[in-house]
Amino acid sequence: MGHPLELPVGVPTMELCAVKGVVQGGSEAGKPAVDMQEWQLVERAQAGDAAAFTQLVRRYQVPVVHFCQRMLLSAQDAEDVAQETFVRLYRYLDRLEPGAKFSTVLFGIARNLTLNHLRDTKRRGRGVTDPLESHAGLADRSMRPDQSARLGEIAAMVERGLEALTAEHREVLVLREINGLDYEAIARVLDCRMGTVKSRIARAREQLQARIRDLGGDLV
Fold it and tell me: Comparing C-alpha atoms, which of 174, 169, 175, 194 is closest to residue 184?
């Protein structure tokens, strides 16, 4: 990302972006150690520990920005929405309870903000002004020039394929394949049934595969 996200100061009053359904349910038993650590950081941040909140931002700023980029197809807009995601998290720390994975809560906020942004963009008739350079940073220094070029071509086709998907199908594919959330977590983020998540992911994969074939490529 272009610049680090910083701890917000003097956060304005705003409504918490729908996280209902992702902060309820579940139990502490069996929670991964990393998730327990994150909720401990939340508890410390709730008590006024700014360093604890900064740790949360540092852990999640890259995956949140990546999610926003794939949803909005704009690096600049993704930076703005990711920043707003952490601002909202900070503003409503006192409402958060460890009833779900912390990542589920955070992506629930990011998801609603990206959908709001997409709706606003569509209503205003504004297109993407700074499309992603999808191949940037993917190449390995050990790669031959032809391998690096091919990787860039594949990445570009994937980005164009994602752009062709509806927001509904794009979000499940990004949450699953790029951010690595399991089906249960995605269902909580989207506030829907796990069966719905699975069917949407299957459909999204089919559509992405078809689009990439149309562009002259293929996904194995």
Answer: 194
Q: 17-131 in CATH: which number?
A: 1.10.1740.10
Answer CATH for 139-220 from 1.10.10.10, 2.60.120.280, 2.60.40.420, 3.30.1310.10: 1.10.10.10
Q: 140-149, long-range: CB within 8 Å, 24+ apart, which pairs?
A: none
**Do the domains 139-220 and 17-131 match in fold?**
no
Domain boundaries, given as residue ranges, for the chain = 17-131, 139-220
pLDDT digits (tens, 9 = 90+) for 156-175: 777 788 888 999 999 999 99
Question: Which residue is listed with tokens 């700023």?
Answer: 61
Q: What is the DSSP string of 7-40?
A: --SSPPP-PPP--TTTSSS--STT--HHHHHHHH
Residue 64: half-sphere exposure toward Cβ, Cα within 13 Å:
31
State how far the Cα of 158 lies from the Cα of 162, in Å rounded to an integer: 6
Convert the pLDDT of each residue in 92-117 to its tens digit.
999 998 878 899 999 999 999 999 99
pTM summary value: 0.71
CA separation for the pair 21, 44 (Å, rounded)? 23
